[in-house]
Amino acid sequence: MKNHQKNERSIFQRHPAITIFAFCFAAILALDVISANIYELVRGHPWNKRQAKEWEKVYKQIFVRSDIYHHGLAENASIPRINWGTLVYSFYTNSLGFRDKTPREIPLVSKHYRIILIGDSFTEGKGYDYQDTYAGIITDRLAGEGIDVLNAAASSYCPVIYWRKIKYLIEEVGLKFNELVVFLDISDIQDEAVFYSLDEAGNVVKSDRQENKIEDKLVVPDEADLYSGMGSKIGANLMMAFKNNSILFYSAFDRIRAIGKPKPKRQETPRALWTVDKDIYNEFAQVGLKEAEYYMNKLYELLKKNGIKLTVVVYPWPEQVIHNDSQSIQASFWRDWSERHNVDFLDCFLYFFKDKGGSEAVLEKYYIQGDQHFNRNGHHLIADSFLLNRP
Question: 51-215+267-388 has which CATH code?
């Protein structure tokens, strides 16, 4: 009789703690799924895409189209928090649309000696507050000497844009300055060969040669493939469904998974390998160097006409460090060009190859992990090298 009564007891009576836990877990899971789907319905994208969408929104606030020099930065932008990978930093621009420590009005004429810096994303300073970038460090240190420094750089610039933007600033904006420092990047050569050209009016436009470009080796995998190591394709798809329909549980899972996650791998790209790979050099760099030289010649003549001094700076990407490319074509080409034009030249390759710890140690010390851009140490190295070598 006692056994019969025992069998008639409900599962809750037999296992109350487990039953309560299972009920709460199911309720939280259902609420999690509902919340994730409501978020997607309201915002128009899954919760796990929020960072990408936020960056897209911020990107539109920062970068603006130019009918003259293709693109630039918005004027007086004020973004206290922006992401570059795992790095979080602030982004401000001044009234000229130049990256700055804070939004401010820039007079077209300065009573001080004025230097303009120009370059691409390295000089813009991806990942760091302006005062931690080499442009910001140079600005702060030279301010103590009564020298005014402004940063006209932006991502994906190259010599055709350097020339056209500076021409616009001098002739149409009326900006007065005494010296231009061009930080020539390794990627400038592919940009010249592939991405930009001039239209009939002499303005920079997107080139129709892009369809012939070498594809970078930095392939973005299908998101489902990121989980392929966890099992079959079905399992990967289930994981994607979990990712797209959960906020709480996926966040917890992602944090746990990140604990044992290896460091991001540094993948090499043709944008930088042209200095060490003959096939890549022949594919676009031979043409790109000629294009870059042509526009640097035009920039030189423009500055000479206006009595403005020119300084040229070069520096390595991780690829040059990995392949021990200390005597790089990038350095030798622009050194020769600078000597022919009697302009100051700074080869920052020398400072990166002074380190005796080997390529991995140099990469870890001076570059963002898994990225081609400089970390704080790299920015300080460039700034110190520049300031040390000023006449």
Answer: 3.40.50.1110
